[in-house]
Amino acid sequence: VIPEVRANELLAEVGISSLPIDPIALAKGLDVEVKELYLGDACEGFLIVENHRAMIGISSTIKSEKRKTYTAAHELGHLCLDVLGAPNKKIECRSASIETYARGLPEIELRANRFASELLLPKILVADLVLNSDLGWTAIDEISNLADTSRTATARRFIQLTDEACALVVSQKGQVRWFAASPSFALPIDMDSRLLHAGGAADLAFKGKTVPNEFLEVPAVAWIRGHRSKLKDASLQEWSLPLNQYGQVLTILWDDQGVGDFDEDSVADVEGDEEEFDPRFGWETPTFGKKRR
Ligand SMILES: [Zn+2]
User: Fold this and answer.
1) Per DSSP, what are the bridge partners of residue 59?
2) Residues within 5 Å of ion ligand 1, judged at the Cβ atom
3) How far, in Å, is the centroid of ligand 1 from the Cα of 173?
4) Distance 40 CA to ligand 1 centre (A)
5) For helices 65-81 and 107-120, angle between their N-to-C axes, nearest 10 degrees
């Protein structure tokens, strides 16, 4: 079952066709008990099924109401995707597994996150809003207020539905944790660099400095892996937010000039050029130009 398809089936089953979508009310309507309770530090939510009776637990220590909403939607995802009629089941979810698309995330958690994002921000209700907005955190925050969803979840959805070439980059402890690219964003973001480029807005945010609340032009090679000679003078737009309560910096990258629109085959890998250290970005030598197969 495709998580997004299942989420839309559920919305149709309960007759929901407008924003905001309240997964806690939705669960209660399905006779699923939802309880807020103390779950310790690491666990943020769980689903328990006993004799076919389902209960969702949400950590009382979650500070943001939007995160509680997301967690409830995530647990509904487990109910719809992973229980499959079993009389008894218990699934516990760590906070590090909710609302993230990091590499190495267990498949079951990835599915629940995909389900939650579609449930709270269904394409059928959100696509027109995205296509009629200018890319940036202003529009993302407006949709987030309308849908009562978190910035991260809303931004990922915006990126999936926009026709601009852009990407959401989520960084933690000064390095890229995960990213999501729009269908037309053709550049590979560097996931292996140890640090964000020094002096960039995301780097400043980690250092607690004031970050301009707008797009800023940055060298493309500050974020992008490979094609270094081709991208030497190219630039991207970067809009990073201040450090959030999860210790993350959220960045929108926008390829407003179509830097990614070149034919990869026409770009010869230039040996030597790929190895040089660029002191502007404070990296150890990244593995630029590595062939992707
Ligand atoms: Zn989970």
Assistant:
1) 37
2) 93, 109, 112
3) 24
4) 16
5) 120
Measured in Å, residue 117 CA sits from the centre of ligand 1 at 13
- Give the Cα separation of 179 and 259 in Å (integer): 18
| pLDDT bracket for residue 198 (50, 70, 90) | confident
Ligand 1 centroid from CA 111, angstroms: 9
CA of 245 to the centre of ligand 1 (A): 21
pLDDT band at 262 (very low <50, low <70, confident <90, very high): low
Give the whole-angstrom CA distance, residue 146 versus residue 166: 22
Q: Which residue has the higher pLDDT, 283 or 136?
A: 136
Output the CA 162–ligand 1 centroid distance in Å. Answer: 27
- How far does residue 48's CA lie from ligand 1's centre (Å)? 11
Over pLDDT 70: what percentage of the chain?
Answer: 88
The answer to whether 24 and 14 have CB atoms below 8 angstroms apart is: no
C-alpha separations of 151 from 67, 138, 140, 154 in Å: 10, 11, 7, 5
Length of the chain as a residue count: 293
Q: Tell how far the Cα of 20 is from the centroid of ligand 1, in angstroms.
A: 22
Backbone phi, then psi, for 129, in 5-degree steps? -60, -45
Task: State in Å: Cα 259 to ligand 1 middle.
Answer: 38
Whether the model pTM is above 0.90: no
And the tokens for 147?
């849908």
Any idea which residue has 């079993």 for tokens? 86
Bond into 20 cis (ω within 30)? yes
Which of 84-88, 151-155, 239-243, 244-248 shows the lowest per-residue confidence on average (mean pLDDT)?
A: 244-248
Residue 99 Cα to ligand 1 midpoint, Å, equals 10
